[in-house]
Amino acid sequence: MITTILVVLVILYFVRKIYTEIASSSNPLAAGEHLRDATIVQGKFTPKTLAKYNGRDSDRIFISVKNRVYDVTQGAAFYGPGGPYENFAGRDASRGLALNSFDPAVLTPLDQPIDDLKNLSKIELESLESWDEHFENRYKIVGTLHENGTVKEEDEKSL
Ligand code: HEM
């Protein structure tokens, strides 16, 4: 019994260590020079135009949280192809973050209206708030999310 508990604790320790290493190697603040040099322009996205910033079709990775679009490229180890949260890349991650779920089924299909999040519980909204703070502290906002068909092409982002 004691051995089992020890094994579990050792596993948890290493999982935590690996994640912390990924997080620090992808910390945009640690890569300050690079971020300062990057030209960040505010842009308007729709679910469909955001989708291409998924780390496969574009080098940059963007995700939307509460209709603000973050450049999470520095967190490619999390959101890039094969990363634990790749489902969020190029997508509105709000509901997934609120529900603490990276199940792709939680994401709104690209051709549907933007999720208004109205049916979230208080606890789910609090979870979303704290994730939003996490993203604000860690990543640059590069634009906002708008309904499909409402953004003129010249307003769209071209990075
Ligand atoms: C097996 C369960 C899970 C473990 C062990 C785990 C572990 C971790 C760890 C250790 C971090 C790094 C925290 C830090 O930077 O200090 C992290 C970040 C994160 N996790 Fe999880 N997590 C789990 C489940 C989830 C789920 C279900 C979600 C779905 C919303 C999620 C979303 C995230 C996000 C969005 C980040 C932030 C990445 C960033 O900073 O860009 N995690 N996770």
User: Spans with pLDDT under 50 lasting ≥5 residues?
Assistant: 26-40
Strand content: 5-15%
Largest sheet: 4 strands, mixed
User: CATH H-level name... which superfamily?
Assistant: Cytochrome b5-like heme/steroid binding domain
Shape-level CATH architecture: Roll
Mean pLDDT across all amino acids:
84
Describe this structure in words.
- Residues 1-20 form the signal peptide.
- Residues 45-146 form the Cytochrome b5 heme-binding domain.
- It comes from Lodderomyces beijingensis.
- The chain is an alpha+beta fold.
- It has a single domain (2-153), classed as Cytochrome b5-like heme/steroid binding domain (Flavocytochrome B2, Chain A, domain 1).
- It contains 6 helices and 4 strands.
- The protein has helices at 2-25, 32-37, 47-50, 76-79, 94-98, 122-138, and strands at residues 43-45, 62-65, 68-71, 140-145.
- It has a 4-stranded mixed beta sheet.
- The N and C termini lie far apart (55 Å).
- The model is unreliable at 26-40 (pLDDT under 50).
- The protein binds protoporphyrin IX containing FE.
- Residues 15-16, 19, 23, 72, 75, 78, 85, 96-97, 100-102, 138 line the site of protoporphyrin IX containing FE.
